[in-house]
Design goal:
heterodimer, A: 224 residues, mainly alpha, two-stranded parallel ribbon, B: alpha+beta, protein ne1242 fold, four-stranded antiparallel beta sheet, 35% helix
Chain lengths: 224, 94
């Protein structure tokens, strides 16, 4: 089972391999395809909906599988932006994600908004129901890092910036951690078409029910 | 539906019915979806999330039920980002 971990714990070899895998999937057209797909579904049920977390979990899983075609040991690392807040953090070094700003013409302006705080993350973790959890997580913790990075990351085609995947890996980790802390909490639908067994946009054979257990999808997190 | 115009920090914001559409719509809610947003005479693409909140395609992660307010927030955000880029460029030159 693959272990997703903070980018800070990547070895030099793992980091370089991940960077090369990103260039590889960009060359295959996958990055642009995912960016267009995300933009096309943006105003559907993938945001502001109970499908927000399941849809992005499925998206990351599919992206990770394509990275693993480059090298089978790759897992997506996460960026915990509530803790790693500096624009001069190693995440943004030219040896890591910094190089993509010019290479892929991403137009970043790091620091354009404020990042979520640890207190917000802690408070959100204590929400007792799925609907209270995901809606606050999306608005107050997921949205700000998109605005903080700016450029491609701030728009509907945000998967065009590779930091999208590290950011959403963190959001997925926060969901997984919340699930482990609230094992009896049921999935709560936000409305029509957003139920537990309703198909996910783009991938009609997938539903929230099929992605609730991330271990069954073949990965775990370093915090577990 | 009448166009709505506002000056904001030296920028012109305009909300107007899309050309040729206003006469064909009977309900206010439907006309609402047909409004065109312009900032400094440039069209700004937007959409509505499942609960009706607005977001801009270029500034997609700030959501509100007031399109004019969102346009003002986008202007502030864009100005701040430009300032950061200018500072970064000036740092590289020095």
């Amino acid at each position: 089972m693959g272990v997703r971990k903070t980018y800070r714990n990547l070895t030099d070899a793992e980091r370089n391999r991940f960077v090369q895998a990103l260039y590889h999937v960009k060359s295959t057209g996958l990055v642009d395809q995912f960016a267009q797909m995300h933009a096309g579904h943006f105003f559907m049920n993938i945001h502001r909906s109970s499908h927000f977390l399941p849809w992005h979990r499925e998206m990351l899983r599919r992206f990770e599988r394509r990275l693993q075609q480059f090298h089978p040991d790759i897992t997506i690392p996460y960026w915990a932006s509530a803790a790693r807040r500096s624009t001069s953090d190693p995440l943004w070094a030219n040896s890591f994600l910094g190089q993509f700003n010019s290479a892929w013409n991403l137009g970043r302006a790091l620091g354009s908004d404020t990042l979520p705080t640890q207190q917000q993350v802690t408070t959100n973790r204590g929400r007792g129901t799925y609907d209270a959890f995901w809606s606050e997580l999306e608005r107050d913790i997921h949205n700000p890092p998109h605005r903080w990075v700016e450029g491609v990351m701030g728009g509907t085609a945000s998967p065009g910036d590779p930091v999208f995947y590290l950011h959403h890996c963190w959001i997925d980790m926060l969901w997984a951690r919340w699930q482990l802390a609230h094992p009896g909490a049921p999935f709560v639908s936000s409305g029509a078409g957003a139920g537990l067994n309703d198909p996910l946009m783009e991938w009609p054979s997938s539903t929230p029910a099929k992605v609730l257990d991330h271990h069954a999808l073949g990965y775990t997190y370093d915090i577990e | 539906m009448q166009p709505e115009r506002q000056e904001y920090k030296g920028h012109r914001i305009e909300l107007r019915p899309r050309e040729g559409r206003e006469e064909s719509r009977a309900r206010e809610a439907e006309r609402e979806e047909e409004r065109e947003l312009l900032i400094d005479d440039q069209p700004v693409r937007y959409g509505q999330l499942p609960d009706g909140l607005y977001a801009l395609e270029e500034y997609a992660f700030d959501w509100t039920d007031n399109l004019m307010d969102l346009a003002r927030r986008f202007i502030d955000y864009r100005d701040r980002a430009e300032e950061i880029r200018r500072e970064a460029e000036s740092g590289e030159e020095n």
